[in-house]
Specification:
The complex is a heterodimer of chains A (about 110) and B (about 110).
Chain A (H helix, E strand, L loop, with lengths): L4 E3 L2 E4 L5 E6 L6 E7 L6 E7 L2 E4 L8 E4 L6 E5 L8 E8 L8 E2 L3 E5 L1
Parallel strand pairs in A: 2-11
Antiparallel strand pairs in A: 1-3, 3-8, 4-5, 4-9, 5-6, 7-8, 9-10, 9-11
Chain B lengths: L3 E4 L2 E5 L5 E6 L7 E6 L6 E6 L5 E4 L2 E6 L4 E6 L8 E9 L4 E4 L3 E6 L1
Parallel strand pairs in B: 2-11
Antiparallel strand pairs in B: 1-3, 3-8, 4-5, 4-9, 6-7, 7-8, 9-10, 9-11
The chains are: A mainly beta (about 110), B mainly beta (about 110).
Amino acid sequence: GAGVSQTPSNKVTEKGKYVELRCDPISGHTALYWYRQSLGQGPEFLIYFQGTGAADDSGLPNDRFFAVRPEGSVSTLKIQRTERGDSAVYLCASSSAVGGDTQYFGPGTRLTVL
Amino acid sequence: QQQVKQSPQSLIVQKGGIPIINCAYENTAFDYFPWYQQFPGKGPALLIAIRPDVSEKKEGRFTISFNKSAKQFSLHIMDSQPGDSATYFCAARGGAGNQFYFGTGTSLTVIP
């Protein structure tokens, strides 16, 4: 079946605007992770879901960032009052179970805040 | 605080050479150490992984060497090819959600 998909692939917004980034995990995968990758850096953990609940959101940088997964499948990362420092590639990964050995990554959404 | 430290930042080798990328970690609770390969515009893809009870793992041209006492592990690419040119990330699994902590990446260029 299809891998992890993310939309949009690119998002350009202005400082102060609100954005939503979507992740469609591999069908049947219960664990879903969001990472942020800045230029020249490795992915940095933001939040993970087991089913519908956010089991660990310790990586979210501040309260402008929020993520949901209402039906335990698709997830949306929401960023309020965007700042230029939020510019990065936002990666989503899914795994068949929390702690599953393999996390399958999507292609990412490149967010640019002008 | 960087949980996993990776070096070198970049590496250039001739075709057929054996690039080696090194990583070090501090948290002894980490229980799984994957290497990911990333091409421009793509998400990271799992290349090979090892658990701390094993000192070496080989899959095709890729080998991980693991030194538990030194808390270090490395990736060796045998007979490197131009198609191996990519960014490589080491990672370690831990934390409440068993999330991955990534190194800062190594940009590998294999010259034909």
